[in-house]
Design goal:
Elements (H helix, E strand, L loop, with lengths): L9 H10 L5 E6 L5 E7 L2 H9 L9 H7 L4 E6 L3 H15 L9 H4 L2 E4 L8 E4 L10 E3 L5 H14 L16 H4 L13 H15 L3 H17 L3 H21 L1 E2 L7 E8 L3 E10 L2 E11 L6 H13 L10 E4 L6 H12 L4 E3 L4 H22 L3 H14 L7 E10 L2 E11 L2 E2 L5 E4 L12 H12 L1 H8 L4 H6 L16 E5 L2 H14 L7 E5 L4 E3 L14 H30 L11 H11 L2 H6 L2 H5 L6 H11 L4 H16 L1
Parallel strand pairs: 8-11, 11-12, 13-17, 17-18
Antiparallel strand pairs: 1-2, 1-3, 4-5, 4-6, 7-10, 8-9, 9-10, 13-14, 14-15, 14-16, 18-19
Length: 658
Amino acid sequence: MSAIPMLQQAERLKARLAEIPSEPGCYLMRDGEDRVLYIGKAKVLRNRVRSYFQSGSGHGHSPRIRLMVRQVCEIEFIVTDSEAEALALESNLIKQNQPHFNVLLKDDKKYPYLCITWSEAYPRIFITRRRRFRSPLDRFYGPYVDVGLLRRTLALVKRVFPLRQRPQPLYKERTCLNYDIGRCPGVCQQKISSEAYHQTLRQVAMVFQGRNDELIDLLSAQMERYAERLDFESAARVRDQLQGLDTLTADQKMSLGDGSISRDVIALAADQRVAAVQLFQMRAGKLVGRLGYMADAASSAEPGRILQTVIEEHYSQVEGVEIPPELLLQHPLPQQELIAEWLSEQRGRKVRLVVPQRQQKADLIELVVRNAGYELQRAQHASEQNLLATEDLAQLLDLTDPPRRIEGFDISHIQGSDAVASQVVFIDGLPAKQHYRKYKIQSSSIRSGHSDDFMAMAEIMRRRFRRWAQAKAEGADLAALRRSTDSALHTGGLGDWPDVVMIDGGKGQLSAVMEALRELNLHEDLVVCSLAKQREEVFVPGAKDPLDSEADQLGIQLLRRLRDEAHRFAVSFHRQQRGERMKRSRLSDIPGLGPRRVRDLLAHFRSIDAIQLASPDQIAAAPGMGPALAQAVWEYFHPQDPEATADTEDGAVAELAS
């Protein structure tokens, strides 16, 4: 395959376009490294692909598409029997290849998903903002608008169903307390088979598919079977699960009338840049889920086309049982009949797409539009990105709440000389420069020619948290002190407890910091992590491997901004210290020669080299210099050899003796 873009090969492009048939199907655009740039579908393949390269047509494309076209080096196509088949094939190809230029929706960075890793023998269940598609078997449920409700739902599900509670086992050869109290089925020691655990997860998945009523019916029948077999212990366990589901659905559902129909209601609110799309999942007349998407809303993008993109994106990721029999739409879709046919094939039953104009259904659309408007306002708020970053960091570090105060530390020196450290503080994701601090490394072991970043970082930790360690040793309640940090009155001046401490470095720096905190007896109180530069990996105490993260996720970006700010502040302070040292010339080391006389002497001789070549009498002629001080300056630049001095003295003695 040629690595030259097809736009630069007119004859080859013309020949390739002539080869594309005028039939329905999918087309794949590839770059010079054989990576898939874009996947699309068309009723007439030749016309659709030709439109990308026709003279003047590029002006009608978005900047994203124009950029893509400039990189296309090869075009592939797959012919289908119908446009509906092309739509289904396009969905599968996009899921499989994840082309960069197919990403229109921005939900992966704004709203969280719930992931179940079905590809693993013992699947994990967790909240994430990034769909990574590590395996086609893994499933993502969402995206959920209300992250607080999602967290509460997941926490309750983990109490109702016996699931693995930890990402890593606490012990190597035995189970932990969660197994003893029935919270975990003993996954770490394989106390439960993989098949049985998958069965439990399938029941959990029904909660996040909006199929609570089906799950309740299923568990009720199971409880009755246990009771008939006189297995009352198992029946009691299922009864507890039903009671937990009642609690869950009581918090989750809101009655909207018309309890006989299950439907999804989709609407949007948009400005000139972005569109906030809301999808309300109504099952048996109750709202069981509220999902959200953010989409590009260029001036040329029609609302119906945006809604169609969301529908294609969302329903290509769900199972057929999750698709309701009816979809209510705010605007008609450009290919509404085709989408209805595709959804019907996915579901196995007929799916109706309706644009209501009056009465109850129109009121539902208005309700979703109002909610979409509120989400659009949130998206427009400047602090939204910072809030999302702190939430993502909380998920990454397994914190109960997003961290408010985050501190970053870095060391700066040149082979040990002028070693300094920086402490920077971010509050709510923004730099709080009034809380920045500078440190001069005091350890005598760190000097010019001998550097030790581990020792320097440990010293800074001891100095930073010395007051807190002293307060704890005196019996103070650290939790109470931390709760009072938002007040203007701080006991003992303690009001700077960080929610997260980030160290610039890898596992070595992190180990040195944790050893210093153990000396202070604060190693269990502080949340500490380190960010390694080379691969942007995050390490936490006690873990051999870095956390599972991606360099472009919001939490990592926040840590990188913190790290870069700490590095900038440390380097700036180091340069300041080094500059001040270099400004102090060698003349400052001469006893009796103060700053004013140094300035006058340099003004008279113009350079230190000229002073070094001058005689004592010439130095004495300078302003403010007497014979004794001039002799001291001359001797500083012309130190006598001790052996030569001794020989001279011996000669003088011999001469006197003769």
